[in-house]
């Protein structure tokens, strides 16, 4: 197989992989199961798996890796992603083993040299991964046994920012954005699992229409992405909660803003908002997963002031 054909085939496979992820995340949400990624897709009769036994994964049909993976955290031990996201927002991904000449590590180096995109698979939970694509290796550090990876289009700009307040602010923003992307999928997965894939207000079960709403926002130092700071809400009730149309008291009772209670409109207003006034939210089965009452009280005061 001559080199031009290899390059063309590699390019086609990567584009097909990104299209496959577009389709699968549209259908299943932004977190995908191991089995689906392992099964992968067929490209002109060639089977392409997107994940495998090695964290640096190269399908048999390709000469270079197509994905890198961070394993899910173990029970009650959150993944230390803060430790692997640099101040400029780039992800530090460790080589496999300690030999830079290991063929997996050589593959990463070639991806860097050729600036070919790949997929980063972030382990959210057991058998569940959030893909980031196209990701680009923007630095290679064989002496320190790692590469630096940009997970979104603007992340690489963090390496180009100068020193001083403006550069520091830009790098800080890049880091926060990267961490937020890593946090958010894991937060949603854990909150929806705690609430049994059900809206806490209207009991809707369609996962693709559910969000994990923060009680205290992630801009608040206390607004960490843990289940007691979250509520499983459908898109309508999430928007109502965020815009202070709907509040939740510390005793878990729902209130709808008084002016909205007095409105006349169609069935969504009547049943979806006015009809849940003074009802109680659905709570997780495990008491440690219940919403933090202090956080609810603070958020409820914001709702009252808005009303």
How much helix is in the residues? 25-40%
Question: Which stretches are poorly predicted, pLDDT < 50 over at least 5 residues?
Answer: 1-5, 154-167
Strand residue content: 15-25%
**What is the total number of structural domains?**
2
Mean pLDDT: 87
**What's the SSE pattern?**
HEHEEEEEHEEEHEEHEEHHH
Give the N-to-C terminal Cα separation: 69 Å
Shape: elongated
Radius of gyration: 22 Å
Helical region count?
Answer: 8
Q: Structural class of the helices, strands and pairings?
A: alpha+beta
Largest sheet: 7 strands, mixed
Number of strands: 13
Write up this protein:
With 307 residues, this protein is α+β, with helices and mostly antiparallel strands. It folds into two domains: 180 residues, no CATH class; 110 residues, no CATH class. It is 35% helix and 20% strand. It contains eight helices and 13 strands. The strands form four sheets. Strands 1, 4, 5, 6, 7, 8 and 9 form a seven-stranded mixed β-sheet that branches. A two-stranded antiparallel ribbon has the order 2-3. Strands 10-11 form a two-stranded antiparallel sheet. Strand 7 and strand 8 form a beta hairpin. It is elongated and about 65 Å long.
Q: Which descriptors would you attach to this protein?
A:
about 300 residues; alpha+beta; 2 domains; seven-stranded mixed β-sheet; two-stranded antiparallel sheet; 8 helices; disordered N terminus
């Amino acid at each position: 197989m001559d080199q031009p054909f290899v390059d063309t085939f590699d390019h086609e496979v990567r584009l097909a992989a990104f299209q496959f992820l577009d389709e699968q995340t549209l259908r299943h949400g932004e977190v995908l199961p191991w089995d689906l990624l392992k099964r992968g897709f067929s490209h002109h009769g060639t089977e392409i798996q997107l994940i495998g036994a090695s964290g640096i994964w190269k399908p048999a049909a390709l000469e270079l890796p197509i994905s890198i993976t961070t394993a899910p955290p173990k029970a009650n031990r959150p993944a230390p992603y803060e430790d692997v996201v640099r101040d400029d927002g780039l992800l530090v991904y460790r080589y496999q083993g300690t030999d830079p000449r290991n063929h997996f590590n050589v593959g990463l180096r070639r991806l860097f040299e050729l600036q070919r995109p790949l997929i980063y698979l972030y382990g959210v939970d057991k058998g569940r991964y959030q893909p980031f694509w196209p990701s680009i290796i923007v630095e290679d550090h064989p002496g320190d046994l790692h590469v630096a990876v940009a997970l979104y289009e603007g992340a690489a700009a963090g390496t180009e920012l100068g020193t001083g307040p403006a550069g520091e602010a830009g790098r800080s923003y890049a880091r926060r954005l990267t961490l937020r992307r890593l946090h958010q999928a894991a937060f949603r997965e854990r909150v929806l699992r705690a609430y049994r894939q059900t809206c806490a207000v209207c009991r809707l079960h369609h996962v693709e229409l559910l969000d994990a709403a923060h009680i205290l926002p992630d801009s608040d130092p206390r607004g960490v992405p843990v289940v007691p700071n979250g509520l499983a809400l459908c898109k309508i009730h999430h928007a109502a909660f965020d815009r202070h149309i709907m509040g939740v008291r510390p005793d878990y009772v729902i209130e709808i803003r008084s002016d909205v209670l007095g409105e006349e409109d169609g069935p969504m207003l009547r049943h979806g908002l006015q009809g849940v006034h003074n009802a109680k939210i659905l709570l997780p089965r495990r008491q440690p997963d219940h919403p933090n009452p202090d956080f609810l009280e603070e958020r409820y005061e914001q709702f009252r002031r808005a009303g």
